[in-house]
Amino acid sequence: MMTTQDKNAIDDLIAGFEEAYGPNERDVNLWKAYFRGHAEFITVDQAILDANERERVARQSQRPPGAGRATRADDVSSDSEEEDCAFDPLVVVRTSSEGRMLSKWLDAARKRLGGTFPRDAARAEMEAYAEKMRRRKLKGGKQAVAGVVEDETTEAARLEKRVVRLSQASTALARRWLRAAQDSIQARFRERGKKLRDDCEECLGEMPEEDEWFYGADLRFEGRQVLTRGDALRADQLTLEAEAAVRVRRIEADFQVFEHEKQATIDEERAVFEAKLQKLADEANRKLELRTRELERTKDLRREECDAAEKKERDEEGAASSATLAKHRDILDSIDQEIEGAREAVEKQRKAYEGEQRGFFDRHESLQIQVIADRRISAITNIRQIRKETQAKIRGDENKWQNDAARWLSTGRRKVELKKREDADMEAAKRRRGQ
Running DSSP on this structure, what letter comes out for residue 84? Predict the structure, then answer.
């Protein structure tokens, strides 16, 4: 996906953070975790920067408008022509720094002007401006600014298309491929050195001392020196690799201990947190049970009072009135509603508190997990740095030795092949003479 640099990216991140965690959140670690999870970066090729700089210098070198050719009558537009806007409308987020600054300026300007806002003619002016913008788009947009040529075929435009935004998954794949490529290069380099040592030893073995008159003492001596130097280099390389392996194992062991301790702490905190919530839930249920029993006793007392009142009314008047019965039902129903309301209030309060606490704890736990991930990345980076330094120490002398060995091996093989052909020709001549 092609994109350009966004100067308001940090404001968008701040707005998203405030929307997710509230404007009063001040936890630095939480902000760092949010930034690592949502920030996006672009890579700009140096060629693009150079091309943009050349364009800027070229524009500055042009002659600025001023005294020179006299202005003609038709160079100045009349007042009857439609005024064109230099820029398209710009959308500013209210929660950003720019948005808050513009809102503050707007409030101050309105106070100084006085009166009620928005003005009565504001909607009409806005609709007229929107219609003007629509007409301009139908005509093909703004007219090109004089002196500026936008050509998609220019080198700068082509270079601009090379800007690519990578997602986190793409970045991880790219790093994995890079590391695999580096490992493959090192493996091929090591395999080439091993093969050169084997080939040099084999070629030197095909040069017996009794044939020194043919190969020459200097060639055999040089081959022996090349092979000896290669063995010595290989011994030094094994020592360096062993030292690097010890350092790598130490880093891996430290990370495993750190990860184990950190994960144990996370599990322990999770268990303590769940036990705390369970304890609070049990306490809330106990209080609710006590309140429910109290209300049940109150209900029983009210029922007895209502029954006594109804009995008295039946004894005096022969039957209880409907108004009395309805009043007694309302009293008992209100107590039932109070019991149900107490249950709902306790449950709602418990769920709200539990949800809030779980949110805080989950964020805290995610930060702890992120610490483990950061430590893992740091360990991997240190291990690769150790291996890179080891390879840098090895590669210089090893590369020079491989070049010397390849040159000697090429000469030695030609001599060996020539000796084999001459021996074969002599054998063939002997057989012909014997016949």
Answer: P
Structure tokens at 287: 């209080």
- Residue the block writes with tokens 């949110």: 359
E strand intervals along 140-262: 164-165
For residue 344, the Cα-to-chain-centroid distance in whole angstroms is 43
Written as six digits, the tokens of 1 are 């996906």
Question: SS3 for 296-323, per residue?
Answer: HHHHHHHHHHHHHHHHHHHHHHCCCCHH
Report how far apart, in Å, the C-alpha atoms of 405 and of each of 134, 190, 212 are: 76, 14, 20
Q: What are phi and psi of 43, to 5 degrees?
A: -110, 125
| Per-residue tokens: 264 | 């144990």
Q: What is the DSSP code (8-state) at residue 165?
A: E
DSSP conformation class of 59: H
pTM: 0.46
- Tens of pLDDT along 239-282? 888 998 999 999 999 999 999 999 999 999 999 988 988 888 88
Closest CA to 33 of 355, 365, 381, 380: 365
Q: Count CA atoms within 13 Å of residue 168 on its CB side.
A: 6
Find the distance separating the first CA and the last CA of the chain, reported in whole Å. 82
Burial group, residue 396, by CB count within 10 angstroms (0-12, 13-18, 19+): exposed
Cα–Cα–Cα angle for 103, 104, 108, nearest 5°?
115
Residue type, 194: K
How many angstroms separate the CA atoms of 75 and 246, rounded?
80
118 φ/ψ angles, rounded to the nearest 5 degrees: -75, 155
- The CA-based dihedral angle spanning residues 393, 399, 404, 409, taken in that order and rounded to the nearest 10 degrees: 120
- For 90-116, write each residue's pLDDT tens digit: 667 777 778 888 888 888 888 888 878
Helix (H) or strand (E) holding 152: none
- Asked if 9 and 132 touch (Cβ cutoff 8 Å), the reply is no
Helix H or strand E segment including 42: strand 42-43
Question: Quick one: DSSP state of residue 63?
Answer: P
Kindly report the backbone phi and psi dihedral angles of residue 164, in degrees, each rounded to the nearest multiple of 5, phi listed first: -125, 135
Distance separating alpha carbons of residues 296 and 335, to the nearest angstrom? 8
CA distance 387 to 393: 10
Q: Which residues pair with 42 in a beta bridge?
A: 165
Structure tokens at 292: 């429910």
Can you read off the two tokens belonging to residue 171? 């970045």
**Domain range annotation of the chain:** 1-57+95-117+159-165, 176-434
pLDDT for 257: 93
Phi then psi for 165, rounded to 5 degrees?
Answer: -100, 125
